[in-house]
Automatic annotation (TrEMBL):
Cell compartments where the protein resides: Periplasm
Biological process per Gene Ontology, one example term: sulfur oxidation
GO CC annotations on file: cytochrome complex; periplasmic space
SUPFAM superfamilies, per database record: Cytochrome c
Family membership noted in the UniProt record: Belongs to the SoxA family.
Record keywords: Electron transport, Heme, Iron, Metal-binding, Periplasm, Signal, Transferase, Transport
Official protein name in the record: L-cysteine S-thiosulfotransferase subunit SoxA
Gene3D superfamilies, A to Z: Cytochrome c-like domain
Keyword Cytoplasm applies: no
Keyword set includes Phosphoprotein: no
Length: 286
C-alpha cells in the first residue's frame, strides 16, 4: 500500500516538474518572441527613417507629380482641366486644401473628403461618369494608383507640413463624424469585427505590423496624416479611401464603395480624432 502511494506521489512530482518545465520554456519562448518582435520593429522603424531622411527615395512623389499633371490637363468629355475645382478654398486653390477636409460643400449638399470632392469635380467639370470611376477605383498589387488616387496624392502633398484643421463643426459635419465613430466601434459582419477590434487598444499587432491606436488622439495625430501613402509591399500608393476599403475587405464586410456615406464618415471621424496632427503625405508604409 505504501509502495503504491509512494509511486503515485512520485508520479505527481514528475508531472508537476514536467508542468513547470513546460511553463518555463513557454515563458522563455514568449520573452524571446517579444524581444525578437521589438528588434524587428526597431529595424523596420530604422528603414522607414532612412527613407524619410531622403524624401526623393519615396516613389509616391512620382504619383504626386502625375496627379499634378492630371489636375492641370484638359480631359474628359468636356475636355477641361480641374483647375476650376473648388476644394474649399476657392476654384483651383490646392495648397492647404487637404488640411481642411473633409468639409460640407453647399454646391453638392454633402460632406466630402478629398477623393470624393475630386470625383465630384471630375463629373461636374470634366463630364466623367462617376459610376464608371468607382467600379474599380483601386489598384491591385504591383499596379500604379488610378488617376483619381494620383490626383488625391497631389492634393494631399500640397498640404504637407501643415496641421489637420478641418473644423467639422457644422450640423451636417457633426452628424457625419458621429456616424463615423459609430461605424468605427460597431462590431458586425461574419467575423464580428469592428475597426476598434484592431485600433482601439495600445500595443496590438498583426504579424510584424504594429496596429495604431486610432481612437486615441495622440496616436491618431502621428498616423492619419501619412495617408495617402506608398506601400512597399504592394508597390503602389494607397489612398485613405483605399485603406478603408481594404480594412472592410479584411473584416469580410460588404464592399465599401469609394465616396459612400460610410467611407466619408469613417475618414471624418479619423481626421477629427487626429486634429492638430501634421500632414506628411505621401507617407511610407510597409
Amino acid at each position: 500500500m505504501r509502495r503504491r502511494n509512494a509511486s503515485a506521489g512520485g508520479c505527481r512530482v514528475r508531472v508537476r516538474n514536467l508542468f513547470l518545465i513546460v511553463v518555463g520554456f513557454g515563458t522563455l519562448f514568449a520573452f524571446g518572441v517579444a524581444a525578437q518582435d521589438a528588434e524587428t520593429e526597431k529595424a523596420i522603424e530604422r528603414y522607414r527613417q532612412m527613407l524619410k531622411e531622403d524624401p526623393w527615395s519615396n516613389p509616391g512623389l512620382l504619383d504626386s507629380d502625375r496627379g499634378e499633371a492630371l489636375w492641370k490637363t484638359p480631359r474628359g468629355p468636356k475636355n477641361v482641366s480641374l483647375e476650376q475645382c473648388d476644394l474649399g478654398k476657392g476654384p483651383g486653390k490646392v495648397e492647404g486644401a487637404f488640411a481642411e477636409l473633409p468639409r460640407y460643400f453647399k454646391d453638392a449638399d454633402r460632406v466630402m473628403d478629398a477623393e470624393t470632392r475630386i470625383l465630384w469635380c471630375m463629373e461636374q467639370l470634366q463630364g466623367f461618369n462617376t459610376a464608371d470611376l468607382v467600379k474599380r477605383p483601386h489598384p491591385g498589387g504591383g499596379q500604379p494608383v488610378k488617376e483619381l488616387g494620383a490626383i488625391a496624392t497631389y492634393v494631399a502633398n500640397q498640404s504637407s507640413g501643415e496641421k489637420f484643421a478641418a473644423k467639422l463643426d457644422l450640423p451636417q459635419e457633426r452628424e457625419v463624424v458621429a456616424l463615423g465613430e459609430d461605424l468605427f466601434n460597431r462590431r458586425s459582419g461574419p467575423m464580428d469585427f469592428s475597426c476598434a477590434t484592431c485600433h482601439a487598444a495600445e500595443g496590438l499587432r498583426i504579424r510584424l505590423q504594429g496596429l495604431p491606436y486610432l481612437s486615441e488622439p495622440k496616436e491618431a495625430r502621428k498616423v492619419v496624416g501619412e495617408w495617402p501613402a506608398y506601400r512597399v509591399s504592394t508597390t503602389h500608393v494607397m489612398t485613405l479611401q483605399h485603406r478603408m476599403y481594404d480594412c472592410y475587405w479584411q473584416m469580410r464586410m460588404p464592399q465599401l464603395q469609394l465616396g459612400s456615406d460610410a467611407s466619408i464618415a469613417l475618414i471624418a471621424y479619423l481626421v477629427k480624432t487626429a486634429q492638430g496632427g501634421e500632414i506628411a503625405a505621401p507617407g511610407l508604409k510597409r
